[in-house]
Amino acid sequence: MNLLAEYDEEERALALVLDEDPDVVAVLSLQLHVLGLESRCYRRADALLAELDECAPQLVIMGLEFGDPDGIELLRLLAEQRFAGWVLLLGGVERKISRIAERVGHTLGLQMLGSLDKPMRLAELRQRLDRLRPGRKPAIVPEDSPFFSADELESALQRRELTVHYQPQFELASGRLSGVEALVRWSHPQIGLIGPASFLPMLTAAQSRRLTCHVLEQALADAQRWREQGVLLSLSVNVTADDLMASQLPALTRQLAPGDSPLVVLEITETAAMDDELLGSEIAARLHLSGMEVAVDDFGVGFSSLSRLQMLPISELKIDRSFIRHLQQDSQDAAIVEAIALLGRRLGIRVVAEGVEELDCLPTLARFGCTHVQGFGLSRPVPADEIPRLACDQSPIRARIVASGEPSGSTP
């Protein structure tokens, strides 16, 4: 099906393609045409930049190996020109270099679609472009910085416009929906639903603590409604180190959650969890005594000491999505994931693989010993009222693992 069949011809999305290899450019242009996108091709970065504002493309597809500026410098130049579309990188360099470039793009505020190896396959290109809203220009970030003022955020908190969606988490051994991760969204009255990256960095420490309490309160209320429908799930909430220091978190949980409430898991990033060994141990111990658990999020991207990990009463490790994305193609990623899963088994804690986009990796994750999985390939974040339906649906996980002939692993 043509991705843009539902839109008028004049609304077709435009992609700018930059690469020095004419064969690559020719094939990619044809593939974009098949998918319903117009394309303009360039062999020099300065030529692309000169036309960027004039043609307002929705997508830039670019290699990293070409003259001056190089690909990473071009990402900085795109950010300086406030490019509000999407960026897809072309392979041809060492995978580590592509990843560094992608992280640089994210840090600069660009919307990155990852990278594709050459030669590109049409199916892979189609999958990457599924994230786009074809034919529609992306929202342009206003000249004012930051996008949202502190007063707007304060008003949003007071009007309770910040709502909660839930990322489903599945148990690999059984394939069942076992838990959810609470993710905040801003239901803006004019703009619509806004993701957290657009407003969380603007929050003050005090606002962040209030928001965490709001998310926890809302999530516990939703969990109680699910329980009344016969759906019992663990509940994960992202917190900062500053949030954990606030005494109201354990008190709020005890107040809102009855004795038979679901397991509450507070997720903190690896770097924050390891910054202060004694402080981290004290916080985690107090939360444990309050009936909550602590998970280390994005595990593997920091450089924390394993001895510190041994000291913290942690119940869950979440493997960063950057290692899961190329699990089937990159032996180094596979080795890292396997080592983290083994570490989790030895410590007797759950190991969650984040960012699962392809179900083909599930047998490998199960064989390594990962216990739980989550990601867009299984389900996108959904509103609270969709969770009971997901819990009743037949999960594809178990069937895929059984069909592969792989052992399903075990859950501590």
TrEMBL record:
Tree of life domain: Bacteria
Q: What range(s) does the EAL domain occupy?
A: 146-395
The protein's matches in CDD domains, at most eight in alphabetical order, are given as: EAL
Q: Name one Pfam family in it.
A: EAL
Record Gene3D superfamilies: 3.40.50.2300, EAL domain
Q: Which residues form the Response regulatory domain?
A: 14-133
Q: Which InterPro entries match?
A: CheY-like_superfamily, Cyclic-di-GMP_PDE-like, EAL_dom, EAL_sf, Sig_transdc_resp-reg_receiver
Protein name in the entry: EAL domain-containing response regulator
Q: Per the UniProt entry, what species is this protein from, by scientific name?
A: Billgrantia antri
